[in-house]
Design brief:
Blueprint: H1 11-15, H2 22-26, H3 40-51, H4 54-57, H5 59-67, H6 71-95, H7 101-110, H8 112-144, H9 150-167, H10 169-199, H11 223-234, H12 243-247, H13 254-283, H14 289-293, H15 295-302, H16 308-340, H17 358-377, H18 382-390, H19 393-415, H20 429-447, H21 452-481
Helix pairs in contact: 3-10, 3-13, 3-16, 5-11, 6-11, 6-13, 6-19, 6-20, 7-8, 7-19, 8-9, 8-16, 8-17, 8-18, 8-19, 8-21, 9-10, 9-16, 9-17, 10-13, 10-16, 15-16, 16-17, 19-20, 20-21
């Protein structure tokens, strides 16, 4: 089993069981394994809900401001890229089911250093994102109940979702199912209202038509540079879909469940994202100041929905709490998998008798509770600071997924093609194209003055984690040789 963690990768290493260290296994409660209470309905809604968050409801306005109606091209390009990366994750997770998802796959493909680096980078990003989402939700509720400080709401949300994730996996699944269902219902209603307004089907309303798409400086008012700038803004909006690859490991039939969820999720997400942005730039002029501030509220006001601002605040609150719940789950499963592979303290691989990695959950919420103090001390600046700290880690992880898929797909086609029930289209050309596209996006982010600090921060963190991973593997290899 050690050969799967250290030394050159062979076809046997790739197709063997997921690397699990004996020390971490011994730390489990006797006879405990990850539970499998999640059902197909949970997986589908987790996949949909994981990617529908503040990036769509709020971030789309910033993209429209820099690209105009051309933001539709930006969203299509970003969506196709994320769908392709998600397909890569799905292909590997169905062929090689693993609680550690793409971190375990990177370890199979390249060695322990790769799994260590990808896993810890993702975990660092997600635990900060959990704190960001708790803070964002707290800001909304503080607006409704100003007598209670923001930090107190952060503390409440962190406590509630810690309990929900510690009690049982089924609790997480039900929370996420209903959260995601509410978000999907809100988007469907938005699409229906928007289409009715454009066609003139609302009571007493005139047809808006398509004039706003070309009537304010053209479809590309800022040219293709605007489309590229919009791409940088929206590319991270699709993040979160990877949660479904973790959840699949806790179903009775991971391969079949994930395969079905993948087919139903990715194109629906494209419809929701592109459809929503199409409604926004069709119903309102792209340069309307309200679009940049809160595009969904602006559209609902335009079509005459009473209390639109508060209604969207409720939807955004649900989106943030849903993302908090899903990302806390993903973070705990990632660090649990790292402990299983001796890339994290073995105690984090301990499971309760009902199959929940409680210590992994508690480790993953620690920064969220630290953010309570940060919100108490710096309530006006902590949100932006946390956003900048996670930077472009998601893009680095996506690039690692693509590189891993190139390696493992070749091995699987050679030795176990029957496992490839989900396949990435156009392999290897599309995978290479996706890698190049992500590399270009990373360069553009580094060249932009506003996003450069995020790229630099991500680069420094990646270098540090990678160095630790390489030194750790060399030390283990030397110990084995001795």
């Amino acid at each position: 089993m050690t050969s799967q963690t250290d030394g050159p990768r062979t076809d046997t290493d790739v197709l063997g069981d997921e690397p699990v260290d004996a020390t971490a296994r011994a730390a489990r409660t006797p006879d405990a394994e990850l539970s499998a209470p999640l059902r197909q309905r949970h997986l589908t809604m987790i996949g949909l809900g994981g990617a529908i968050g503040s990036g769509l409801f709020v971030g789309s306005g910033a993209g429209i401001a820099v690209a105009g109606p051309g933001i539709l091209i930006s969203f299509v390009l970003a969506g196709l890229l994320s769908v392709l990366v998600m397909r890569m994750m799905g292909e590997l997770s169905v062929a090689l089911p693993s609680a550690g998802s793409f971190s375990s796959h990177a370890e199979r493909a390249w060695g322990g250093w790769a799994g260590f680096t990808v896993g810890w980078l993702y975990w660092c990003m997600i635990v900060v994102v959990v704190a960001i989402e708790a803070t964002g939700a707290a800001v909304i509720v503080h607006g409704w109940v100003p007598a209670v400080d923001t930090w107190a709401w952060v503390l409440l949300f962190m406590a509630v979702f810690t309990v929900a994730n510690v009690v049982a996996v089924g609790t997480f699944g039900e929370f996420e199912f209903w959260f995601a269902a509410l978000k999907v219902a809100a988007i469907v209603a938005f699409l229906v209202l928007g289409a009715a307004a454009v066609m003139g089907w609302l009571p007493g309303g005139k047809a808006i038509g398509l004039s706003h798409l070309t009537g304010h400086g053209g479809f590309l008012p800022h040219g293709w540079h605007g489309v590229l700038s919009g791409l940088l803004v929206v590319v991270f909006s699709f993040g979160g879909m990877e949660v479904v690859t973790f959840a699949a490991a806790e179903t009775k039939d991971p391969a079949r469940g994930l395969s079905r969820a993948m087919r139903s999720v990715v194109w629906r997400l494209m419809l929701f994202y592109v459809g929503s942005v199409t409604v926004i730039v069709t119903v309102l002029p792209w340069n309307d100041s309200r679009v940049g501030q809160s595009p969904f509220v602006a559209v609902l006001d335009r079509v005459g929905v009473p209390g639109a601002a508060q209604l969207m605040n409720v939807v955004l609150l649900v989106a943030l709490l849903s993302a908090l719940n899903a990302n806390l789950y993903a973070a705990s499963r990632m660090v649990y998998s790292l402990a299983e592979r001796r890339a994290a303290p073995g105690v984090l691989g301990r499971l309760s008798r009902n199959g929940v990695p409680r210590l992994a959950v508690l480790a993953s919420v620690a920064f969220g509770f630290v953010s309570v103090l940060l919100n108490f001390q710096w309530p006006d600046s902590v949100f932006l600071w946390m956003l900048n700290s996670v930077g472009a880690i998601a893009l680095v992880v996506w690039m690692a997924v693509a590189a891993t898929q190139l390696r493992l797909r070749a091995v699987l086609e050679r030795t176990a093609p029957e496992r490839l029930t989900v396949r990435v289209w156009g392999y290897p050309a599309l995978t290479v194209l996706a890698l190049l596209a992500m590399g270009i996006v990373l360069v553009l982010l580094a060249a932009d003055r506003g996003t450069r600090p995020q790229v630099v921060g991500t680069g420094i963190l990646t270098a540090v984690v990678l160095a630790v991973g390489v030194l750790r593997q060399r030390r283990r290899s030397a110990s084995r040789a001795d």
